[in-house]
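Appendix B, Record 12. Input sequence as logged:
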Amino acid sequence: MLNAISWQCYNVSTNSIDYNTWSLNLTNTPYRFSDDLNKFTVIGCDTLAYIGDFQRADSYQSGCVSVCHNEVSLVNSSCSGIGCCQTTIPKDLAYYEVWFASNFNSSSVWNFSDCSYAVLLEANRFEFLTSYITTTQFWYNNNGTAPLVVDWAIGNETCEVAQRDKTSYACISEHSECLNSSNGPGYLCNCLRGYHGNPYVAQGCQDIDECSDKDQYPCHGICQNLPGSHNCFCPVGTYGDAVNGTCTQTQHQKLPSSAKVAIGKSLFFPP
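Logged structural output:
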Protein backbone atom coordinates (compact mmCIF):
# COMPACT_ATOMS: atom_id res chain seq x y z
CA MET A 1 0.00 0.00 0.00
CA LEU A 2 1.02 3.67 -0.23
CA ASN A 3 1.72 5.43 3.06
CA ALA A 4 1.64 9.19 3.62
CA ILE A 5 4.95 11.01 4.24
CA SER A 6 5.17 13.30 7.26
CA TRP A 7 7.10 16.52 6.70
CA GLN A 8 8.28 19.74 8.30
CA CYS A 9 9.64 22.76 6.41
CA TYR A 10 11.20 26.03 7.46
CA ASN A 11 9.16 29.02 6.29
CA VAL A 12 11.57 31.88 5.58
CA SER A 13 8.88 34.56 5.29
CA THR A 14 7.39 33.81 8.70
CA ASN A 15 10.54 32.47 10.36
CA SER A 16 8.55 29.47 11.57
CA ILE A 17 8.19 25.74 10.99
CA ASP A 18 5.31 24.38 8.94
CA TYR A 19 4.59 20.69 9.34
CA ASN A 20 2.18 17.86 8.59
CA THR A 21 2.53 14.65 10.58
CA TRP A 22 0.78 11.35 9.96
CA SER A 23 -0.65 8.45 11.91
CA LEU A 24 -1.98 5.13 10.60
CA ASN A 25 -4.34 2.85 12.50
CA LEU A 26 -4.86 -0.80 11.47
CA THR A 27 -6.05 -1.87 14.93
CA ASN A 28 -8.96 -4.33 14.93
CA THR A 29 -8.16 -5.40 11.37
CA PRO A 30 -6.32 -8.55 10.16
CA TYR A 31 -3.35 -6.35 9.18
CA ARG A 32 -0.12 -5.26 10.87
CA PHE A 33 3.01 -3.53 9.56
CA SER A 34 5.71 -5.89 8.33
CA ASP A 35 8.66 -5.76 10.71
CA ASP A 36 10.87 -7.61 8.20
CA LEU A 37 10.32 -5.45 5.13
CA ASN A 38 9.60 -1.96 6.50
CA LYS A 39 11.86 0.61 8.15
CA PHE A 40 11.12 3.98 9.69
CA THR A 41 13.02 6.40 7.46
CA VAL A 42 13.98 10.00 8.19
CA ILE A 43 15.42 12.43 5.65
CA GLY A 44 16.84 15.85 6.52
CA CYS A 45 19.88 17.81 7.64
CA ASP A 46 18.80 18.81 11.14
CA THR A 47 16.05 16.34 11.93
CA LEU A 48 14.95 14.12 14.79
CA ALA A 49 11.70 12.28 14.12
CA TYR A 50 9.88 9.82 16.34
CA ILE A 51 7.58 6.89 15.68
CA GLY A 52 5.43 5.46 18.43
CA ASP A 53 2.33 3.62 19.54
CA PHE A 54 1.10 4.65 22.96
CA GLN A 55 -1.90 2.35 22.63
CA ARG A 56 0.35 -0.65 23.21
CA ALA A 57 0.74 -2.03 26.71
CA ASP A 58 4.53 -1.59 26.38
CA SER A 59 4.15 1.94 24.90
CA TYR A 60 6.45 1.57 21.90
CA GLN A 61 8.55 4.59 20.92
CA SER A 62 11.62 4.95 18.73
CA GLY A 63 13.33 7.64 16.70
CA CYS A 64 15.95 8.46 14.13
CA VAL A 65 18.25 11.49 13.84
CA SER A 66 19.67 12.79 10.57
CA VAL A 67 22.27 15.55 10.47
CA CYS A 68 24.37 17.17 7.75
CA HIS A 69 26.10 20.55 7.56
CA ASN A 70 26.53 20.91 3.81
CA GLU A 71 25.87 19.19 0.51
CA VAL A 72 29.43 17.87 0.25
CA SER A 73 28.92 15.36 3.08
CA LEU A 74 25.94 13.71 1.36
CA VAL A 75 26.40 10.37 -0.44
CA ASN A 76 23.93 8.65 -2.74
CA SER A 77 22.57 5.28 -1.50
CA SER A 78 23.90 5.91 2.02
CA CYS A 79 21.36 6.06 4.84
CA SER A 80 23.54 5.94 7.96
CA GLY A 81 22.68 9.24 9.67
CA ILE A 82 24.12 11.83 7.26
CA GLY A 83 21.06 13.22 5.50
CA CYS A 84 19.20 9.94 5.96
CA CYS A 85 18.49 7.59 8.85
CA GLN A 86 16.59 4.30 9.18
CA THR A 87 15.47 2.13 12.09
CA THR A 88 13.46 -1.07 12.44
CA ILE A 89 10.02 -1.51 14.04
CA PRO A 90 8.79 -4.20 16.46
CA LYS A 91 6.53 -7.12 15.60
CA ASP A 92 2.75 -6.90 15.94
CA LEU A 93 2.59 -3.15 15.27
CA ALA A 94 -0.83 -2.12 13.94
CA TYR A 95 -0.84 1.58 14.83
CA TYR A 96 1.77 4.31 14.76
CA GLU A 97 2.09 8.06 14.77
CA VAL A 98 4.96 10.34 13.73
CA TRP A 99 6.19 13.55 15.29
CA PHE A 100 9.27 15.77 14.97
CA ALA A 101 11.44 17.04 17.83
CA SER A 102 10.84 20.80 18.05
CA ASN A 103 14.48 21.67 18.77
CA PHE A 104 15.53 20.01 15.49
CA ASN A 105 14.45 21.96 12.40
CA SER A 106 15.79 23.39 9.16
CA SER A 107 16.24 26.97 10.36
CA SER A 108 20.04 26.69 10.35
CA VAL A 109 20.37 24.86 7.02
CA TRP A 110 17.42 26.28 5.08
CA ASN A 111 19.71 27.80 2.42
CA PHE A 112 20.31 24.31 0.98
CA SER A 113 17.78 22.10 2.84
CA ASP A 114 14.54 23.62 4.05
CA CYS A 115 12.43 20.45 4.53
CA SER A 116 12.62 17.17 6.45
CA TYR A 117 10.63 13.97 5.96
CA ALA A 118 9.69 10.90 7.99
CA VAL A 119 7.79 7.80 6.90
CA LEU A 120 7.45 4.08 7.51
CA LEU A 121 8.27 2.50 4.16
CA GLU A 122 9.33 -0.67 2.37
CA ALA A 123 13.12 -0.66 2.77
CA ASN A 124 13.95 -2.56 -0.44
CA ARG A 125 11.99 -0.06 -2.51
CA PHE A 126 13.91 2.93 -1.13
CA GLU A 127 17.27 4.34 -2.16
CA PHE A 128 18.52 7.62 -0.73
CA LEU A 129 19.43 10.31 -3.25
CA THR A 130 21.27 13.49 -2.31
CA SER A 131 18.65 15.43 -4.29
CA TYR A 132 16.12 14.48 -1.60
CA ILE A 133 17.90 16.98 0.65
CA THR A 134 18.12 19.92 -1.72
CA THR A 135 14.76 19.49 -3.51
CA THR A 136 11.22 18.25 -2.83
CA GLN A 137 11.79 15.24 -5.10
CA PHE A 138 11.23 12.65 -2.36
CA TRP A 139 7.78 14.01 -1.52
CA TYR A 140 6.71 14.35 -5.15
CA ASN A 141 7.93 10.89 -6.26
CA ASN A 142 4.53 9.36 -5.38
CA ASN A 143 2.56 12.51 -4.57
CA GLY A 144 3.51 12.56 -0.90
CA THR A 145 3.44 8.80 -0.32
CA ALA A 146 5.86 5.86 -0.11
CA PRO A 147 5.37 2.06 -0.49
CA LEU A 148 4.50 0.19 2.71
CA VAL A 149 4.14 -3.57 3.31
CA VAL A 150 1.47 -4.99 5.62
CA ASP A 151 1.25 -8.56 6.87
CA TRP A 152 -2.05 -10.24 7.71
CA ALA A 153 -3.23 -13.20 9.74
CA ILE A 154 -6.45 -14.99 10.67
CA GLY A 155 -7.79 -14.36 14.17
CA ASN A 156 -5.73 -14.30 17.35
CA GLU A 157 -5.32 -18.03 17.93
CA THR A 158 -2.43 -20.40 17.31
CA CYS A 159 -2.79 -23.30 14.87
CA GLU A 160 -3.10 -25.74 17.75
CA VAL A 161 -6.09 -23.90 19.21
CA ALA A 162 -7.72 -23.01 15.88
CA GLN A 163 -7.70 -26.62 14.65
CA ARG A 164 -9.93 -27.70 17.53
CA ASP A 165 -12.91 -25.81 16.10
CA LYS A 166 -13.56 -27.26 12.64
CA THR A 167 -16.47 -24.89 12.04
CA SER A 168 -14.23 -21.81 12.02
CA TYR A 169 -10.85 -23.34 11.06
CA ALA A 170 -9.79 -21.71 7.79
CA CYS A 171 -7.37 -24.29 6.31
CA ILE A 172 -10.12 -26.42 4.79
CA SER A 173 -8.41 -27.83 1.69
CA GLU A 174 -7.46 -31.51 2.14
CA HIS A 175 -3.81 -30.91 1.25
CA SER A 176 -3.28 -27.74 3.31
CA GLU A 177 -1.29 -26.93 6.44
CA CYS A 178 -1.51 -24.32 9.19
CA LEU A 179 1.35 -21.93 10.03
CA ASN A 180 1.48 -19.64 13.05
CA SER A 181 1.91 -15.98 12.14
CA SER A 182 5.49 -14.74 12.44
CA ASN A 183 4.29 -11.17 13.08
CA GLY A 184 1.91 -11.15 16.04
CA PRO A 185 -0.99 -13.50 16.87
CA GLY A 186 -3.07 -15.50 14.40
CA TYR A 187 -2.29 -18.05 11.72
CA LEU A 188 -2.06 -18.56 7.94
CA CYS A 189 -2.73 -21.49 5.60
CA ASN A 190 -0.47 -22.94 2.92
CA CYS A 191 -0.79 -25.78 0.45
CA LEU A 192 1.44 -28.71 1.33
CA ARG A 193 4.68 -29.20 -0.55
CA GLY A 194 3.92 -30.67 -3.95
CA TYR A 195 0.52 -28.92 -4.12
CA HIS A 196 -0.55 -25.45 -5.17
CA GLY A 197 -3.75 -23.42 -5.19
CA ASN A 198 -6.03 -21.92 -2.53
CA PRO A 199 -5.84 -23.62 0.89
CA TYR A 200 -8.87 -21.66 2.13
CA VAL A 201 -11.43 -23.45 -0.10
CA ALA A 202 -12.37 -27.12 -0.37
CA GLN A 203 -10.25 -28.96 -2.97
CA GLY A 204 -8.28 -25.75 -3.38
CA CYS A 205 -4.84 -27.36 -3.14
CA GLN A 206 -4.20 -29.38 -6.28
CA ASP A 207 -1.31 -31.71 -7.09
CA ILE A 208 1.56 -30.15 -9.03
CA ASP A 209 2.41 -32.12 -12.17
CA GLU A 210 6.18 -31.80 -11.91
CA CYS A 211 6.67 -33.80 -15.11
CA SER A 212 4.99 -31.07 -17.17
CA ASP A 213 7.32 -28.35 -15.85
CA LYS A 214 10.84 -29.44 -16.79
CA ASP A 215 12.26 -25.94 -16.14
CA GLN A 216 11.42 -26.02 -12.43
CA TYR A 217 11.60 -29.80 -12.01
CA PRO A 218 14.28 -31.01 -14.45
CA CYS A 219 14.31 -34.66 -15.40
CA HIS A 220 16.57 -36.04 -18.14
CA GLY A 221 15.08 -39.51 -18.01
CA ILE A 222 11.69 -41.05 -17.25
CA CYS A 223 9.46 -38.79 -15.10
CA GLN A 224 6.66 -40.27 -13.02
CA ASN A 225 4.17 -37.88 -11.38
CA LEU A 226 2.95 -38.87 -7.91
CA PRO A 227 0.46 -37.20 -5.52
CA GLY A 228 2.48 -34.39 -3.94
CA SER A 229 5.79 -35.50 -5.49
CA HIS A 230 7.40 -37.20 -8.48
CA ASN A 231 10.09 -39.71 -9.43
CA CYS A 232 12.79 -39.32 -12.06
CA PHE A 233 14.45 -42.52 -13.35
CA CYS A 234 17.24 -43.23 -15.77
CA PRO A 235 15.99 -45.10 -18.87
CA VAL A 236 16.21 -48.90 -18.95
CA GLY A 237 19.77 -50.02 -19.61
CA THR A 238 21.29 -46.92 -18.01
CA TYR A 239 22.15 -45.82 -14.50
CA GLY A 240 23.11 -42.59 -12.69
CA ASP A 241 21.37 -39.32 -11.80
CA ALA A 242 18.49 -38.57 -14.18
CA VAL A 243 17.76 -35.22 -12.56
CA ASN A 244 21.19 -33.85 -13.46
CA GLY A 245 21.34 -35.72 -16.75
CA THR A 246 24.19 -38.08 -15.88
CA CYS A 247 22.61 -41.38 -16.95
CA THR A 248 25.25 -43.67 -18.50
CA GLN A 249 24.99 -46.93 -20.43
CA THR A 250 25.15 -50.06 -18.30
CA GLN A 251 28.41 -51.97 -18.99
CA HIS A 252 27.73 -55.76 -19.22
CA GLN A 253 30.71 -57.97 -18.37
CA LYS A 254 31.96 -59.87 -21.43
CA LEU A 255 33.37 -63.43 -21.10
CA PRO A 256 36.32 -64.58 -23.23
CA SER A 257 35.54 -67.06 -26.09
CA SER A 258 37.37 -69.93 -24.35
CA ALA A 259 35.15 -69.54 -21.30
CA LYS A 260 32.01 -69.65 -23.47
CA VAL A 261 33.20 -72.91 -25.10
CA ALA A 262 33.94 -74.44 -21.71
CA ILE A 263 30.46 -73.53 -20.48
CA GLY A 264 28.90 -75.02 -23.62
CA LYS A 265 30.77 -78.27 -23.19
CA SER A 266 29.71 -78.54 -19.58
CA LEU A 267 26.10 -78.28 -20.69
CA PHE A 268 26.20 -80.88 -23.46
CA PHE A 269 28.87 -83.28 -22.22
CA PRO A 270 28.20 -84.01 -18.56
CA PRO A 271 30.73 -86.15 -16.76
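Confidence is low (pLDDT under 50) at residues 259-271.
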